[in-house]
Amino acid sequence: MAKLLLTVPEAVEALSISRAKLYRLMDSGAIPYLHIDRSRRIPLSGLEKYVADLLAKEIAA
Predict the structure, then answer these.
(1) Cα–Cα distances in Å, from 14 out to 3, 29, 37?
(2) 5-6/34-36 β-pairing
(3) Of 9, 10, 37, 40, which residue is least crowded by CB atoms under 10 Å?
(4) pLDDT > 90 fraction of the chain, expressed in percent and rounded
(5) What percent of the chain has pLDDT above 70?
């Protein structure tokens, strides 16, 4: 079964971006996340939507 929630390091690796960039994207609302205790978890579907939105912007430009 595929993971539904990713840790910050897993999301950083999946997107090939820096940790700081991921936190900026989460804080801006571009990538959704949730708190489990004191840890942030990023839904895989949120990453997929973020990438799809980026692609749509590129195609529209």
Answers:
(1) 12, 18, 23
(2) unpaired
(3) 37
(4) 95
(5) 100
Q: Name the amino acid, one letter, at 22.
A: L
CB atoms within 10 A of CB 42: 24
Alpha-helix runs per DSSP H in 1-61: 8-15, 19-28, 44-60
In single-letter form, the type of residue at position 17 comes to I
Q: What is the DSSP letter of 3?
A: -
Tokens 């912007």 correspond to what residue? Answer: 57
For residues 23-30, average pLDDT: 97
Beta bridge partners of 12: none
Give which of 33, 29, 27 is closest to 7, Cα–Cα. 33
pLDDT at 34 exceeding the cut of 90: yes
The alpha carbon of 34 is separated from its chain's Cα centroid by a whole number of angstroms, namely: 11
